[in-house]
Amino acid sequence: MKMSGEEETLSNGCSRSDLSLALEDCMAALDLFLRNEFEEAQARLRSRTKDSMYHALTYATILEMQAMMTFEPQHILAAGTTMKEAQAICQRHRKKSSFSKNFTEEELHAEVCYAECLLQRAALTFLQDENMISFIKGGIKVRNSYQTYKELHTVLNSSAYSQGHNHGHFEGGVKLGVGAFNLMISMLPTRTLKLLEFVGFSGNKDFGLQQLQEGSKEGTFRSFLCNMLLLCYHTFMSFILGTGEGDVHDAEKLLQPYLQKYPKGSIFLFFAGRIEEMKGNLDAAITRFQECCEAQQQWKEFHHMCYWELMWCFTYKKHFKMAYFYADLLSKENCWSKATYMYMKAAYLSMLTADDCLTFGETAFTLFRQVPGLKQKIAGKSLPTEKFAIRKARRYLAENPIPLPAPPLEMMYIWNGYTVIGKHKDLTEGMLKTLDEAQKKLDSCPRTDLSIDDQCLLSLLKGLCLKHLGHQEEAEHYFTLVLCNETQIKYDHYLVPNALLEHGLLCLEQGRRDEAIKLLEAAKQNYKNYSMESRTHFRIQAALHKARGTRENGTHVPASP
Predict the structure, then answer these.
(1) Residue 203: pLDDT band with limits 50, 70, 90
(2) Fewer CB within 10 Å, N or C, the chain?
(3) CB 458 within 8 A of CB 406
(4) SS3 of 316, please?
């Protein structure tokens, strides 16, 4: 790989290149962004988005971050359009002829920026749907991005490649893309993985993490993004889409230097809160999230992310009035899912006495009835959580509705919250007490066609609490109870594969590995078309990965992309 053009000019001692100056300016804008000076950062970038690929990409990345936090249709549209424009700028700087093997340094940077634009456009699609099929439907975009990163990785490791002045920034871009692809693909459920491998994709989790870790340490333009992706992986992806065991130690190590440099940086205070929450240190988490809200007023989007986490922290503590307060703030201020927020408001009110509800001027019954009417579609898709909330709320449309037994505790399971309370005996015992009260209430009511569904839900949640309290035999009894009633479940079919998943994880804890694999395989193979199916399959895949101790469910995965 022979470098030409720019590198020669630099070696002659001439002034620094446009590329070097652009990267320096973008890093200065990023520094402003991390100091909560969001408008100033955007203004600095905006002036050069029509001619500099790095300014265009950085500006589009900030808009995409905003869109991912707000889910406002106009923000999603603006982010998508701006990223497309950034892609067009990168295209202008890409190599014109495919016959020559000589790249200028600028052309190499154009390739990596172009691939990043494609990857980010695909990531926005995934966030809206949580289903990798929609990610793959971006087909050509994703494939082009993947192939470009593969080729650039080969270039980087080629003996013919000579390092340009901005080599570190280029290498960081390649590590970001190669790491992101390997990590994302490695997490996929087997059926999606097989489809991807058929069309030439492959992923290795350890290699992906290694690439991102290397990229995060270099102090280059992409270090921050590598770091953010690792933090998201440890604190969200592996937690919500895995078995709830994000690597807190690694997350803390990654966060510490940034928190020291940007002690008031909203993004870092948010992750600090999330780490405390995962550890079960709820009071410390609440303090961090409140600090994050107080740190700046320009981007309310960071406040909304904190409100969501604060809502869950107060749910874990069974402070349902405070949880309602944050759900109410979200329903008024944020557009991600009005139906989910309304459902959570109703769910919290359903846990309070009638007198307590009077102080809020709303009733659970009236709020639940509003949920189906708030359904929205983002890019033609409904969010899985929203579909779940709407389906659960539909029972309140009946003339004499049968109340849901413990709706906040059920939604808590969907977001893997039992792994948080499971770290503290008092929190788990408190939740078990609430479930026992719900059980007494269910037992005292006349039987209906929904009684089995409600009983199975309580059995699954009680099993989880008992597992975390070390009462493994009792927990196993409750998981088995769900399976025994499988044929009588009317609507909540998602309970059966999830009971098998939790039973499998329990067996795994006890060293009953073969039994665990059998239960997990049954959960994976025997059930489909149920609520939150995609999320359950992600969790099953993570559990099987853990059970088998192999790279990806027995599939051969190459050590590089």
Answers:
(1) confident
(2) N
(3) yes
(4) helix
Say which residues have a Cβ less than 8 Å from residue 54's Cβ, sequence separation at least 6.
Answer: 19, 22, 23, 26, 109, 113, 221
Backbone φ and ψ for 103, nearest 5 degrees, come out as -110, 140
The DSSP 8-state label assigned to residue 399 in this structure reads S
Let me know if 456 is exposed, middle or buried by CB neighbors in 10 A (0-12, 13-18, 19+).
buried
Q: Are 93 and 7 in contact (CB under 8 A)?
A: no
Buried/exposed 389-411: b ≥16 CB within 10 Å, e otherwise? bbebbeebeeeeebbbbbbbbbb
Torsion sign (Cα): 459, 465, 466, 468: positive
Residue type, 295: A
Place of tokens 């709830």: 244
In this structure, are residues 144 and 90 in contact, taking their beta carbons and an 8 Å threshold? no
Beta-bridge partners for 103: 3
541 near 503, Cβ under 8 Å? no
Using an 8 Å Cβ cutoff, are 441 and 470 in contact? no
> Quick one: pLDDT band at residue 553, thresholds 50, 70, 90?
very low
Residues 6+ apart with CB under 8 A from 301: 66, 69, 70
For the purposes of burial, counting CB atoms within 10 Å of the CB of 284, is it exposed (0-12), middle (13-18) or buried (19 or more)?
Answer: middle
Q: How far apart are CA 485 and CA 31, in angstroms?
A: 57
- For 55-64, 94-103, 277-286, 330-339, which range has the lowest pLDDT when averaged over its residues? 94-103
Instruction: Give per-residue pLDDT as tens, 311-348.
Output: 999 999 999 999 999 999 999 999 889 999 999 999 99
378, β-bridge pairs: 381
Dihedral sign (CA 349, 353, 355, 359): negative
Residue 497: CA count within 13 A, CB half-sphere: 26
Per-residue model confidence as pLDDT tens digits over 504-536: 999 999 999 999 999 999 999 999 999 999 899
Rounded CA separation 346/457 (Å) = 18
- The helix (H) or strand (E) run that includes residue 341 is helix 338-349
Helix residue spans in 218-281 (DSSP H) = 223-232, 238-240, 248-261, 266-278
Is residue 431 within 8 Å of 351, Cβ to Cβ? no
Using CA atoms, how far apart are residues 251 and 235, in angstroms rounded to an integer? 7
Handedness of CA 42, 128, 322, 236 (dihedral sign): negative
Could you give the CA distance from residue 387 to residue 401 in angstroms, rounded to a whole number?
A: 20
Q: Residue 103 has which token pair? A: 């790249």
Taking the alpha carbons of 503, 505, 508, 514 in that order, is the dihedral positive or negative? positive
Q: Find the length of the chain.
A: 561
- Confidence band (pLDDT; 50, 70, 90) for 134? low
- List, in sequence order, every residue forming a beta bridge with 3; answer none if it has no partner: 103
Show the tokens assigned to 154: 């080969």
